[in-house]
Amino acid sequence: MKKSTIEQLEGSFVSERVKIMKLNTIKKIFFYTVLIASLLLISEFIFCCIDVYNRLQIMMIRMPNVNKFDCFKDILKMNISEYTRNWDYTYFDDDEFRPPALYYLNNIPLNKNKKDIVLLGCSFTYGDLLENENAFHSQLSKYIHRNVYNLGLSASSPREILYIFNNPEILDKLIDKSDNIEYFIYTYIIDHKRRLYSNLRPLSPFYISDKDYKRLIYLELPSWLNHLYTIRYINTILFDNNYYKNNNLLFNLYMREINQKIKSDFKKAKFVIFVYEDDNTLDWEKLKKEGIIVIQRSDLNLDLEDSKYKVSDGHPSAKAWQVIVPALAKELNL
Predict the structure, then answer these.
(1) Are the CB atoms for 94 and 173 separated by under 8 Å?
(2) How many CB atoms within 10 Å of residue 111?
(3) Do 262 and 221 meet the contact criterion of CB atoms below 8 Å apart?
(4) φ/ψ of residue 117, rounded to 5
(5) From 141-145, 192-196, 199-203, 248-252, the region with the lowest mean pLDDT
(6) For residues 35 and 31, what is the distance between their CA atoms, to the nearest angstrom?
(7) With contact defined as beta carbons under 8 Å apart, do 44 and 230 qualify?
(8) In terms of CB atoms within 10 Å, which of 45, 67, 152, 211 comes out highest?
(9) What are the backbone dihedrals phi and psi of residue 278, each rounded to the nearest 5 degrees, phi first?
(10) Of 267, 256, 122, residue with least CA distance to 186
(11) Which of 57-61, 244-248, 321-325 is modeled with the greatest confidence?
């Protein structure tokens, strides 16, 4: 009887000890979960502040006379809207693109013997702070009497361009995939090289190159992962060294792959790089040898440094495109 009681006590003690161990495990899991979540929230706040500060610095360089507080409010509002948008969307939404010039330039007679033009690029191409009628594609369409598509995407880089070309279901929604396209014109700015490594947008397609910079490999990551400021800045830090060493190699690889996609999918179309900001660090002649047409702004003798050629945040103004369009049309015989 005594033995049975002892066994019962021992069993009760073991059972109680197991409960305590389980409880301690749950407490530890809860503690570390809260700790990680807290650290992530703190890091998100810190990196968000860094992002706002960096954007503010860029804006102050572009617009030294602008009110800092107003500029700060605009950037903060933009960051919040980016951060709180639908986390399930894949890289970009269809409504982030402008409609083709044909949709709202009804009074412009189109030359049916001439083929369409497609513009590629970032906010410069899109036309930040410009009405549809004043953006690059509209002014070009009015000047050459052709339909012009605008595939400019704010804060993007060649990563987004290549992703669009690699996904026909996206491209089919944006342009008429026929033989009726003559040129794909990509507007280049120097910051595009940096954007190949760091995510200016909340989400960007993620490509890595092989060791010899001969091929790009697409990596599909969970959308929420790339949405976090912490991940975006870790990505930037990890690739910083590569950026300083090999950014030109990676940029050239993107240009080659985009050119190859155009050649394969639009056999009669040509790829044009319009270098809005002259960049002598890139070997443009090498790209020309691969059949890419490169037109630097300096080739067109265009001086656009005057403030009238810039909107409030430093992007090209309507007057800038009024000067660029005739020169570019003449150079390409549009």
Answers:
(1) yes
(2) 10
(3) no
(4) -120, 140
(5) 199-203
(6) 6
(7) yes
(8) 152
(9) -55, 135
(10) 122
(11) 321-325
